[in-house]
Amino acid sequence: MKHGNGMLLQLALLISLSLAGVVVGGSAPTSTHLRFYMHDLVTPYPGAPATAVRVARGVTPLPTAPNLRFGDMFVIDDLLTEGPDAASRALGRAQGSYVFASQTELAPLLCVNMVLTAGPHNGSTVAVLGRDLILDKVDVRELPVVGGTGTLRGVTGMASSGPTP
Ligand SMILES: *[C@@H]1O[C@H](CO)[C@@H](O)[C@H](O)[C@H]1NC(C)=O
């Protein structure tokens, strides 16, 4: 992930998310772990259309990323893959939005459904809702998993999000 040159989000933002959660089924809760990469493409390039569109423009530029403003909102339909390469096996889409909800920090509120279209959870979704402090120096950033459908019905837990290894 490149930053510091005002180009953040002009590039593909590749984030690995690993979800650890507890699925509350009919009987005893079971634990499940999923890992995938989310390709957030704001600027299209040949052969790769944008998967994030800005639908609202704020007023106040953010101190650490003046090309972004407090109040900017993006709607996303990002590819989820098994590996960091966009050409690796597709596992689904991340559909939802993020809003730059801090006036001083690069701290979008991510509100997204992970719609799984392959693998053992094909047809299921996981809902993630939380503050994603994208320039934080920590190795992983925690985002709450607030629910799921299908085989992941009732899932709760944590999504750890971080830049590509
Ligand atoms: C996922 O499920 C849908 C609906 O059942 C099916 O059409 C599709 O082939 C499945 N995809 C994979 C990769 O298994």
UniProtKB/TrEMBL annotation:
<dbReference type="GO" id="GO:0048046">
    <property type="term" value="C:apoplast"/>
</dbReference>
<dbReference type="InterPro" id="IPR044859">
    <property type="entry name" value="Allene_oxi_cyc_Dirigent"/>
</dbReference>
<comment type="subunit">
    <text>Homodimer.</text>
</comment>
<protein>
    <recommendedName>
        <fullName>Dirigent protein</fullName>
    </recommendedName>
</protein>
<dbReference type="GO" id="GO:0009699">
    <property type="term" value="P:phenylpropanoid biosynthetic process"/>
</dbReference>
<comment type="similarity">
    <text>Belongs to the plant dirigent protein family.</text>
</comment>
<keyword id="KW-0052">Apoplast</keyword>
<feature type="signal peptide">
    <location>
        <begin position="1"/>
        <end position="25"/>
    </location>
</feature>
<comment type="function">
    <text>Dirigent proteins impart stereoselectivity on the phenoxy radical-coupling reaction, yielding optically active lignans from two molecules of coniferyl alcohol in the biosynthesis of lignans, flavonolignans, and alkaloids and thus plays a central role in plant secondary metabolism.</text>
</comment>
<dbReference type="Pfam" id="PF03018">
    <property type="entry name" value="Dirigent"/>
</dbReference>
<keyword id="KW-0732">Signal</keyword>
<keyword id="KW-0964">Secreted</keyword>
<dbReference type="InterPro" id="IPR004265">
    <property type="entry name" value="Dirigent"/>
</dbReference>
